[in-house]
Amino acid sequence: MPDKKKQPGEDISCTSAEKALNILLAFTPFNAEMGTTELSLKLGLHKSTTSRLIKLLVATHFLQQNPLTKKYMLGSSAVKIGSATTKSLDSKLLAVAQPCLTELSRQLGESVALEMLAGTKVVLALHVEGPSHIRFNFQQGEQVPINVAAGAKVILSHSDPTLLELCLEQEFERFNENTIVSKDEYRKLLQKIKQTGIAYDHGERYKDTHAMATPILGLGGAPKAAVVIAGPAFRLTDQFLQAAVAPLKATAEKISSQLFF
Q1: b/e sequence 47-61, b meaning 16+ C-beta within 10 Å
Q2: Rounded Cα distance, 108 and 210, in Å
Q3: What percent of the chain stands above pLDDT 70?
Q4: Which domains does the chain have, with CATH numbers?
């Protein structure tokens, strides 16, 4: 059969849409300001084409212009789409993680939790209390200190360097002599954690509490959250933590596979 004739302007329309989307994607992941010339060079587009598409994206609020620098950044429409996607993913993550955390807590007999990255902060998003009469009680929604929390450490060890430096702008509080307060020492620790995929809190906030965490990785290996085991130091011994590595990692992988694939 002969090829169907293309309607006038059909190729142009499709190409323009594709180019407009590529312009928006050029601002990921950190929405750094760029001018027309910079975008043209980055995407290999003619400057007049880039200028025309930018005007359309500004008119629909997908881009906005900084009146001082005259450069562009993602606008309110892009933010709304990103927010909707994030809320959907966060909601699904909690729903998927809940039964997995419950099973892990039953298997190990200890409290487990989900720590999540929220901007440049890490918060306790979900927890399941262990069955023992002495257990670690998580405060859901609480922001955790990134220099001591096992989940925060393992999340940041797998994070983009630019995001890490933004997170490190916050002050490190010293809770006791075990607490890391040096940013350089902390960076070196994160490098080691990334190699093993496991982070620990050996009484760095509360001397009588130990914790261990592993990341939940999304597409491209970006960390979204971490599965955490925590409990009294006299129960979470080195022997216990070593034995718990396999089920901890299996739980994180199960959540990741159900969420992203």
Answers
A1: eeebeebbeebeeee
A2: 14
A3: 87
A4: 10-74 (1.10.10.10), 83-260 (3.30.450.40)
